[in-house]
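Bug #77: duplicate submission created two jobs. Keeping one. Sequence:
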Amino acid sequence: MLKHGILNPALLELLGRFRHTNTIVIADRGFPSWPSVPTIDLSLTDDIPTVAQALEAILATSVVGHAYMAREFKKNNLKKTVLAAEKQLYGAGVKLSYESHIAFKKRAPLTIGLIRTADTHPYRNIILESA
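Kept job's structure:
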């Protein structure tokens, strides 16, 4: 029996397939899903868990080289929220690129999985690329 770390079996299975250059999405509660992309729903109630919380758990267990976020995240959230997200990624040695929300949504269906959170921050979604 697992004692700590990620306990969700579906999430563990997805992370086991998250290999060199594969991508996964960590999404807020309103982000669309696609039938071809396995979706793991972690949402419980508003902001439990958040994208930042899911990201923290994944960064503790996985090697991530690059992350993508929509530029709209910077425009639609408080500066401290944006800075906290950037600090979380840069602190883990992850390169961050911003792109339009349209480009982001075109990238999402090409991922190996989508992790849905209950995050209520607009455009908080993030695509992670394994190193």
